[in-house]
Amino acid sequence: MRQLFDLITKLAEDDQTTVLIQGESGTGKELVAKAIHARSPRCKGNFVPVNCAAIPDDLLESELFGYTKGAFTGATSSKIGRIEYADGGSLFLDEIGDMKPMLQAKLLRVLQEREFEQVGGLKSIPVNVRVIAATHRDLEQMVAEGRFREDLYYRLSVIPLTIPPLRERREDIPLLIDHFIDSLKKTCSNPLQGFDLAAMQALSTYPWRGNVRELENLVRHMSILHGGTKVTFTDLPEKYRNNVVASPADSNGDMGADVSRPEQLSLFSATVPPVEEVWSDEGVDFNALVNEFETRLIVQALKMTEGNKKEAARILNLKRTTLLEKIKKKELQKSWQNI
Fold first, then answer.
1. What is the 3-state secondary structure (H, E, C) of the chain?
2. How many domains does the chain have?
3. 231 shares a domain with 265
4. Does residue 156 sit in the same domain as residue 171?
5. What is the pLDDT of residues 32-72, one digit of tens each?
6. What is the pLDDT of residues 92-131, one digit of tens each?
């Protein structure tokens, strides 16, 4: 993502080069296009988005190029198109992979000649516009299959820019959540206080097919239902809770089914040392290692719950009285914060 941000800055400085943004739906392709426009010398011009998949084919041509009076039935007056409206600014063509071949040819002329003709018009109109295109489709494969013009593809893909899906950058999830919560504070009188560790752990294992857009929608959803509080694991919609995967040990039946809970996955990942670190030629002190591991688990649970023994007992799948006895026996009452 840092490399992506650096590339956005470089693309913004050169306001003539055509950009092709590729990525799955919901990854933020339009946000990247807006960032390129906002940082470029064209920032005072219009940023004009066009969703090529959302506008019917018979209307897309007139939307892009405009039309003259009498060009077709119902054209009672002339109308400028979005290409002309973007003159001096940036034209963002979203889902360009859905554009029909006839319009692809007309767009190619805009890129090559820097001019176009309105529907029904005879006069060429010069235009100074930067085209930023985006798609979730594999345009190279479409070119090979004859479904997308090869010459247009190479005109668009002067500098290709790929946005990775959210599942490939899970470390960004907490940062994005904080950003969305801060954004909602402007319009929400009772904003979220965040997500607790268990909820965050569950979200980090979810596949995020809807990418960043799905995450933003979840934060909005939680803000409506749980405004003013911190979202817990049980507050999450079922599909986010059901996706938590069990550890390998759990599948063998060596640990209870509750080990698949996100809090316990976090516990074990933080406390289990590699076998090589504790094994020696003389063997191991089994009882001492078990006792040390138990202590680590208790300390980690107390840290995760900020000293809440009832919640720590729940995470460890122990009775509260049993946990209290172990804390007393190990003399962890006051010392766990410093361990």
1. CHHHHHHHHHHHHCCCCCEEEECCCCCCHHHHHHHHHHCCHHHHCCEEEEECCCCCHHHHHHHHHEECCCCCCCCCCCEECHHHHCCCCEEEEECHHHCCHHHHHHHHHHHHHCEECCECCCCCEECCCEEEEEECCCHHHHHHCCCCCHHHHHHHCCEEEECCCHHHCHHHHHHHHHHHHHHHCCCCCCCCCEECHHHHHHHHHCCCCCHHHHHHHHHHHHHHHHCCCEECHHHCCHHHHHCCCCCHHHHCCCCCHHHHCHHHHHHHHHHCCCHHHHCCCCCCCHHHHHHHHHHHHHHHHHHHCCCCHHHHHHHHCCCHHHHHHHHHHCCCCCCHHHC
2. 3
3. no
4. no
5. 999 999 999 999 999 999 999 999 888 899 999 999 988 78
6. 999 999 999 999 999 999 999 999 999 888 889 999 999 9
Query: Which CATH number is 253's domain given?
Result: 1.10.10
Structural domain harbouring 156: 2-164
Global pTM value: 0.67
